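Example record

The entry below shows one chain as it appears in the dataset: sequence first, then structure tokens.
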Amino acid sequence: MKLFNAFLTGILLLTAISTRAQENYSISAYTVTIDGTSNLHSWNEKVEKVSGKGVIKASANKEFTFHSFNIIMEVNSIKSTEGSGMNKKTYKALKSDKYPEISFVLTEPVIAKTDGSGNYSANAKGTLTIAGVTKTITMPIKISEDADKKITVAGVQKVKMSDYNVSAPTAMLGILKTGDAITINFNTTFSLLN
């Protein structure tokens, strides 16, 4: 009986060492930008208010399983390099009075595996909602973890505004016309919730 108990204790210890429990995280730092083009020049916008949560499990070999994951961007916090006039046109195009948020929500658990150099990647399947229109997308993401168990999730997603019934903004009495395609770049750091 003592031998069996010792064996069972050993198995439990190995399990505890090899796997961390799934843990709750929230966004603690972020950089999110939106890049686009126009008939005159390229343009850039920065999203200044971003939030999000995740339920993530990490194993001893640093394989990450994302059980849930979301990013929420406040439309009225988007600031353009073109100034306040373009900001207002962006808010109007995105119907911010009715739909104040852009969101990505993971719809299937995803396992991120290492490429052997300490970097991890996965394809995250979820829904992207812009201006009240929701589409299913698969977004490639890169993951890393630091010594404080902070997990950084980064990615780039190309989007056509017309897919979300968004009319591309114009400026300078219609002389400047933005292109339909935009690129969302995000780098979000998730910290453990206490």
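Notes for this example: The mean pLDDT is 85. The two ends are 40 Å apart (CA to CA).
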